[in-house]
Methyltransferase (Kineococcus radiotolerans), 185 residues
Amino acid sequence: MTRIISGRAGGRRLKVPPGETTRPTSDRVREALFSALDAAGALEGAWVLDLYAGSGALGLEAASRGAVRVVLVEAARPAARTARANAEAVGLPGVRVVPERVERFVASAAAAVEGGWDLVLVDPPYAVAPEEVDALLADLVPLLAPGATVVVERSSRTAAPRWPEGFTDVRERRYGETSVWTARC
């Protein structure tokens, strides 16, 4: 069972996309990640971009904890439908689902928002090559607000992301098979 951990929608259950094409972030990892983001003041009033959203659990957790605008980007149609259903069921304002390839969305005019994104969550399928993640991080730079936080979740067997110039305070946390890297722009 996947659920919203805390905030206005805390405890609400979320559906998981059918099949084995997505890998939901465990409650344990989400709780640790969002506790750290909360403590850093990265959520309240934030504009959040959730890339490779799957069920939408990461973005919806951010919305539950005070983010004012959340965009969930997911290319797989069944997962995008699940994310949309979860967003409707949770009923938090400011959440939008974009059924599009992450790279295409980031390159589009729709990705550019006034002031930039405050928090970007990047949780690609483990099969996505590290070079693709590195290229995506470079493409995100002009879309970020000053001081933005970027989080990358990958397999612990995967090399750390190669952060573009200008990122600092890079931290890695391991949770069994999952590693989470956080950096500020």
Remarks:
- The domain at 2-184 is CATH 3.40.50.150 (Rossmann fold).
- The mean pLDDT is 94.
- The helical segments are 27-39, 57-64, 77-90, 102-107, 130-140.
